[in-house]
Design brief:
The structure is a homodimer. The first copy, chain A, has about 525 residues and is of the alpha/beta class. Among the domains of chain A are: about 40-200, 3-Layer(aba) Sandwich (Rossmann fold); about 425-520, 2-Layer Sandwich (GMP Synthetase, Chain A, domain 3). In chain A, about 30% of the residues lie in helices and about 25% in strands. In chain A, strands 2-1-10-9-11-12-13-14-15 form a nine-stranded mixed beta sheet, sandwiched between helices. The first copy, chain A, has a four-stranded parallel beta sheet with strand order 4-3-5-6, with helices on one face. In chain A, strands 16-17-19-20 form a four-stranded antiparallel beta sheet, with no helix packed on it. In chain A, strand 3, helix 4 and strand 4 form a beta-alpha-beta unit. The longest helix of chain A is centred in the N-terminal third of the chain and has 17 residues, at about 45-65. The radius of gyration of chain A is 24 Å and the shape is globular. Chains A and B meet through helix 1, helix 2, helix 8, strand 15 and strand 16 of A and helix 1, helix 2, helix 8, strand 15 and strand 16 of B.
Chain lengths: ~525, ~525
Amino acid sequence: MNGQPATPTELEINLIERVNVGDIVTRAADLYPDRAAFVDGDRRTDYATLERQVNRLGSALLSLGLKHQDVVGVMARNCTEMMVAYFACARAGLICAPVNLGLRPDEIAWCLNDAKAKVLFAEQALGEMATQVLAVEMPALEHRFWIGGDGEDGFDALLDRGSEAPLEAMVGDRDIVQLLYTSGTTANPKGVLTSHLAVTMAGLSNAIAHHTGPGLVTYVALPLFHCAMLNSITMPVMVLGGTVVLAKGFEPHEAARLFDEHGVQLMVLLPMMYGLLLTDPGLKSRTFPSMKRAMYAMAPMPEERLHQIHAMFPNADVVLGSGQTEFTPATCVQRPEHQWSKSATWGTATAMTRVAVMDEEGRLLPRGETGELVYRGPQVMSGYLNQPEVSRQSLRHGWFHSGDVAHIDEDGAIWFKDRFKDVIKTGGENVASIEVERCLMEHPEVAEAAVVGAPHPRWGEAITAVVVRAPGGTVDEAALLEHCRAHLAGFKVPKGIVFVDAFPRTGTGKIQKHVIRGELERFYER
Amino acid sequence: MNGQPATPTELEINLIERVNVGDIVTRAADLYPDRAAFVDGDRRTDYATLERQVNRLGSALLSLGLKHQDVVGVMARNCTEMMVAYFACARAGLICAPVNLGLRPDEIAWCLNDAKAKVLFAEQALGEMATQVLAVEMPALEHRFWIGGDGEDGFDALLDRGSEAPLEAMVGDRDIVQLLYTSGTTANPKGVLTSHLAVTMAGLSNAIAHHTGPGLVTYVALPLFHCAMLNSITMPVMVLGGTVVLAKGFEPHEAARLFDEHGVQLMVLLPMMYGLLLTDPGLKSRTFPSMKRAMYAMAPMPEERLHQIHAMFPNADVVLGSGQTEFTPATCVQRPEHQWSKSATWGTATAMTRVAVMDEEGRLLPRGETGELVYRGPQVMSGYLNQPEVSRQSLRHGWFHSGDVAHIDEDGAIWFKDRFKDVIKTGGENVASIEVERCLMEHPEVAEAAVVGAPHPRWGEAITAVVVRAPGGTVDEAALLEHCRAHLAGFKVPKGIVFVDAFPRTGTGKIQKHVIRGELERFYER
């Protein structure tokens, strides 16, 4: 060397040692510049191009005057632009907030206001829905760009303003990279803040959990605004320099075409989507040998259905993964050796997650005992935005509290029992609402049932059922109570039954038990 | 919940979200309590036992009065105790410094003094060598415990003093977990400080690089005091809940027995060790089908040797990994698809490492051009102990400088050329000393050659060769120079040749070129 080099600056040291989600793109572009990062309809974006776009959009965003950790909202169906925006925010030290299109427009606007988003990328093709969101006053919002728009306020126009030079901003490991709102089965949406470190750990540990290898091809039809797709699928595939085939929603024939055309090896679908593939007359005898791993989310499936899926994907492990937004999200994935023997479980802990069961006093329980699932690990959220009290509550006793009730067996597999708040405390006994719901739903004239605890002067909480009758059903309260008495311990039999035509539901279709509880607040004061 | 829970303490939040190397054991003990973590001769330590021992030793160390980030030295051949000490330090927030047994006793004591080690675990069976180290004054050292000692000052006695309760101390992601001394081919040993985050990232990214799966069984005969074994093999295997079969050095028949008995799937050996396995009359027709991955370190091997290794390990990928202590250490590993086509390369970048080539002015060079290998990634060391200036130097221009000269090809594979300092600048030309050394060693009467630049009034540096003749060889300077002129460009021919009986070497057998350079400092002033 000629002369003494300058002492490395703080930024130079940050660039060397940091954990930054945006650097995933740079590393893949180094090794696989020509490989497709995204296939999105007719568009194919290779890693070298993606790297340039990330630099351009990131520098363009900073040139708008955004400051470190400002929020950029994205309102779009799955598309390349959403991921360019995500990585550009990561590299620029901004926070990306993809909003949940399952929410109502006023709820979306509420989230964007809660986040104080300064920029919004909105998909022009969303039409009326986007218009309704933008009609709500959003005082913090300074800029709106249309994805798919070709004017001055289009995404591409902003991209053109940026520089392709490597964007090198100082970003800490635990700075926030994403803000996702949970759909809220028990309360209003909560904004979950997640760090670069958490997303990177999720990427690496899911890459291990997927048991696959480099250059994976995955199919992403479920929305990228859910962290299952964003963090458990997209990141681990991109960490390995693989390809993400994007779809705007699930359609069986299009899915089959993409499986064949791209040799898809990994995917996550909902059980209902497997049903559509398996029962489609044009597809049901098809096989897709490229698939190595067909995952499903949240709800176990019956063994017969698993046999059908294995027949369609003869080279695939068919496994369930579970988790929650607050843990980025995969906490547990079924091990391949459990795909048959423990198909009803939620899987076992991923590489960087500790899973345990806790009682209400904060004591960890031994294997086999039932209590609340609690987690530790660097994939944990950094907190809920603007909700310090709820954030603290969720971290009590030195563990993250999932709100799920389960036990862990001798192999570390998780057997889900109920949502924690669905444990009804009645007359000194704890009753899992799911057990009562299952009993009710076994009655042939019941389509669906939701069971909650309603305040009661004698019982504390009284088990109370809300029931939707099956089409043509005429069963009444007395007959249903008799059915319950025949199948349940006495203290588990509802004290009251209400018949309704439909349940209140979230944007993503989950029953809003907190709404039901609210409606039954004074039920026993009648 | 009854009442409001207390706000989580700083320690509770740390326990939830931190990255701590010691937590690797806890997670594996959750899932695989009965599986062997270590097999060490007749001793088998399962993960549940290891977890208890780590808690006990960690709490016992803290009870000695050690403070956060104090240093604990370990002087031992591969054994379970070394790893218990390592994880106990991790969990207690202490720094573990396993010393290099290839160094001379006074050098080991120098390292322990440089580290200000307060506790030393020493293997009693090292005998005279341990006695010589302990005879050196070590003012900071407060406690010494014998591994294998059965008295009050034995490792086991200290273990018995501790508590099995989970040891929960506050430890940061970037707190230091290990201190390893490089063997120093160009200067005195340098103490490399490595963080919890770096070791964990190395564990996860090497687990991916190994292309294997959970519950791996590995064989570790190379010393654990090198980070290749400690970080690139042991951690990724333990992250997956696998088993580490320990050996105190390599012996072909014992190795074969362990492969068979434990179904070893992964290992790293030096090329010389493969040679011993392949040429042993009792083993050379054997095969070991359990092996999935037979790695080798640092030096490429000829294709014929690779064929022989493949024949012995018919189900294994045979790949080279490279790196350095300062990067924890694996920066590059050959991809399986390159094991034949690019067997002469150092591999391609691991999942969290960026590798580039830089010129002397700090400019990154395009693919194909030769310069110094530089790295970025969270596996980077936190610095050299007590050497802030060298630490800063190593991080100049926003990259970690490897000191290796190479180019990167279109697939991202690294083609090593030379150590940076072995580029001799002579008469305006740069000459890689390795090229001149290879030419000299092609002469049948030359056993070994080391080429350096010696200061010269006309040439700046004059290419100067130090040569060990082959047994019975009589070649002289004039004949060797003629040989060089026949095979090298004129400016690459040495200006002088010195014949010696042996080279100065480090404890691990590397030629100490800095010693040779020192001896030739005034060669051209004669």
